[in-house]
Amino acid sequence: MPQSNTNKILKVLVFIGSVFFVLSSVFVIWKNYPLISEYYFPSSPSNSPRFFTSDFSTPIILKNDDFIVYYVGAIDNQLEIFDLLIPTPTGSSYNSYLIHSLKEDTFILFETVHEDHYQQLHYRLKNVIPVGRMVDYLFMSHMEPDHSGSFALLMNSPFASFKHTQLIASNEGLEYLSRMHHFDLEDISSIAVSETKQWQELNLGGLEVNTRLTKYVHWPDTTTTYLKQLKTVVTGDFFGAHYCPQNAWDDVSLIIRTDNVIDDSEWVAAADLYAKVIFGHLPEAGLHVINVLNEIDDSIENVFDTHGPVTVGRDASKSLRELYSSILTPLPPAKRRNKDSFLVLYISSYSYTQEMALAVADGIKEVSNVELIDLSMPPNDLMNRVRTASGVLIGTPTFVGMPLPQIWNILTELNPVIDRGTYLGFFGSYGFDPKRCALPKLETYVKEILHVRLPLQSAGYQFRATSEELEDLKNWGRIFVELVNSNARDFQEFDSMFSRAIQQ
């Protein structure tokens, strides 16, 4: 065959091979586009406050021959207020932890992050997890959306799936998560933490875990977990703080702290506010966790919580637990309420309700101690006084058939569990129509929503109470005290029962 024809044939074959290679590559990319695009350009909510970037490092928290622990959480140093409640002058973080079990080559992820910050979690995982591998176990301490919000994004990413990843949480947590992200629990393999509130042993790909249900440490589905080989406790929000160290956005490793919390005044202030707002309403639950952890005190070297600095080192973790213990001074439950200490709270427009409040207080003075408080100028610690009083009588005029906002503000602060043992009563004046009196509305709210006791029917009088009616109010106040004192034991018994339930 002439040389020229051979060259032509070779060129044709090379061309056909090149076309085949290009078409095959296009086909592979087309078939795997969702995987490839999600790996390099993850989904992110349209309201994400952060610009697009892939410059997210994955610092190592702990490393030994068997495990490597990575920080894969999210930093938000632009956050100004959390949950419309807690000021965050330094920002905060949503902590997530990836553990690589080297001997069994498994990946265990503790927590996800806020939905708006999923990109950070994605890229930090991408730095560690090889292409084609996935998280084998996902452990969720509780399902508050700032930690479970990116669950659906993660499960539809290259790093996790309903088919491969096993989910570990409490029974309630699993139910909450399925409701938040609209999936059937039968579609995912899961392990439910025991409801017995005793330590439950699990082996997650070589990682030995002791976990237990710690209800009402913020959420009723909360678990506390001890990682035996790593001498680390994973506590969800407990021991956390909305505190983001300066420059942590640029250097995420700054979130890992080995120093004592008491040496950082900003950290202490943030932890103090956070603990009081989040856990202060039911401190017994938090203190019970501290007591449980104190039983294994010598073994604990690290605390992995979900907000603020990650505490590494025995001394550092112990100082954090001691700080929390000092902050969570228990509020007085029923059996520790101030004995013979009653409050009369009132708000008055034309002094009519004030006159009634004075009469009620006079009646109480005959048999007990009483403090009279004008709610137009309430003290800063008003709710603490309400929660520690033997009983509280509240007076309000009626405005368009309703009590004044100051009254609602007090009642909406109360909780049927937290404020167990509260005795309430209502009095006040009303105007043109007795049927529009505000007091029955207060009674209905207290009975149906708060489920606390009203020893006496409310005392309402049209416009201004007469001298005879004021005398009746004195008797009404005195009888209230007598009824409270005679029934106080019921609430003491309830309080003891509730405290035992928390500590089981």
Automatic annotation (TrEMBL):
Q: Which InterPro entries match?
A: Flavodoxin/NO_synth, Flavoprotein-like_sf, Metallo-B-lactamas, NADH_oxidoreductase_modular, ODP_dom, RibonucZ/Hydroxyglut_hydro
Q: Which co-factor is required?
A: Fe cation
Domain Flavodoxin-like intervals: 342-481
In terms of PROSITE patterns, this protein maps to: FLAVODOXIN_LIKE
> Signal peptide position in this chain?
none
Q: Please give the start and end residues of each transmembrane region.
A: 12-30
UniProt keywords, alphabetically: Electron transport, Iron, Membrane, Transmembrane, Transmembrane helix, Transport
Provide an example Pfam family for this protein. ODP
Q: Which domain of life is it from?
A: Eukaryota
What PANTHER family does the record tag this protein with?
DIFLAVIN FLAVOPROTEIN A 2-RELATED
Q: Which protein are we looking at?
A: FprA family A-type flavoprotein
Q: Which organism is it from?
A: Aduncisulcus paluster
